[in-house]
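Ticket 4471: requesting a sanity check on a complex prediction with magnesium ion. Repro inputs:
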Amino acid sequence: MPHTAIADTPQLRVELRGVGKSFGGTPVLRDIDLVLEPGSVHALVGENGAGKSTLSKIISGLYTADRGQLVVDGEREHFTSPREALDRGIATIAQELALVPELTVAENVFLGREPRTAGWIDRKKLKREFLEVAARSGFDLDPDQVVGGMRTADQQKVEILRALARGASLIIMDEPTAALARHDAELLHDVVRQLAASGRTVLLISHFLGEVLALADTVTILRDGRHIRTAPAADETEATLIEGMLGRTLSSIFPDKPVVADDAPEVLRVSDLVAPGVNGVSLSVKAGEIVGLAGLVGAGRSEIAHAIYGSVPRASGIVAIDGANCPADIPRTLKKGIFLISESRKEQGLVLGRPIRDNVTLSNMGQIASGGWVRTGDERRASRGLLDRVTVAGDDRRDVSALSGGNQQKVLFGRALQKVRKLLIADEPTRGVDVGSRRAIYDLIVQQAEQGIGVLVISSDVEEVLGLAHRVLVVRGGRIVAELEGDAMTEENIITAAFADPITTGGAA
Ligand SMILES: Nc1ncnc2c1ncn2[C@@H]1O[C@H](COP(=O)(O)OP(=O)(O)OP(=O)(O)O)[C@@H](O)[C@H]1O
Ligand SMILES: [Mg+2]
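Returned structure tokens:
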């Protein structure tokens, strides 16, 4: 009767002793000692590639350690699968959610463990047990709703309920808010606090240091696979965390904004653009100017980007580059020097299973020669040069899928740098990227602007938009509802405009 196993005393003490792990002879974790105390939120921070996900995968049974011990409630454990870890009370809320979209909330929560009567799923009991678990969690979810159409934040709740229904005491969350809008992230924060208050342990991996300081009781810093320190969150600040993560200080996360000449020409002018999710948008970007597109997830920011780039058809309206009409046709927009870095690195075609080198030079090769990839000494040097600029170290013949998430994002950036000449559109350029690398990406964006390239940056991180952009356009319902510049560029103004009912400002061209 595992489906009823919501332990009343769900406490679990998980400990790592001298844990080490290597991939292909390269040590990724070295001699890690760590205790996760029950009833607490324990955050894990570190640069991209520091070993955070690897550490969490050792605890959750996806990887086994090469050295050292995993100790659960005083007993040594050798998990050989996530299933075994789950049976011991350890669950992971993966970033790519593992739900069945066609099934309902309750069905997903009890998937594979449905209460049965004489072999048949007992629907009444399923619902009753669901309500019981839901009540304990404090979540307000409709058990009969189909999961597929739900918001990411709600789907995460379903995953958490599933973990609770299976009696999980340690819940690992690897960058749970990376893809969430601010409001949903706050909802998830409440959930994390509730879990800890109920005696469970949450292991939280996050690049949002503000979130870490607000939520965690304890913070562990990893750098280059080494345990730097574990300390009460109350003893840390963003600056001390950054120093621990990078081994150096970072005076400012944002570079100085480049100066835009008064007579800088317009590189982009969009007039009355209508396209899927875009309801009449007019805007312009000058040479050397960085314009931010702010708004909630789903407001239509990415849709605007795609309509400009030409990856979706336009219903009406005009997109002009340097004053000349540019039709919705990617080869032609590329030729005009527009490049889009889209928000999803997987969709945007990192070719997994291919070397980093091929991935970073991909767009430069024009085409893949039949039967093989073009590779010359020039390309080898080009690859290395680009990787240096985006600060991705190491052998570029390694498979790109072996890179940590943030480093994959930087490879995409490196690819874009060769193509863009007029306008760079960057959609969530630092999602999942650590603070040090974030600065590297900001520097790259600013360098582009300094060379006279116009930049359109989409970000859900209000601080990022404010720190980078000369001007901010707030998008809501596929329209631009506010244009903010100078002193009007504040967090409060952005959020008010993003949530407010559409204002009839007539756009912001
Ligand atoms: N399956 C794998 N095969 C080879 N190398 C791997 C594998 N998984 C991870 N690595 C390497 O191990 C190191 C740590 O990766 P890990 O994913 O744990 O980093 P992370 O701290 O989670 O980074 P991020 O913040 O980017 O998610 C990286 O150098 C990565 O390239
Ligand atoms: Mg990771």
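Notes from triage: The longest helix spans residues 182-197. Leaving this open until the requester confirms.
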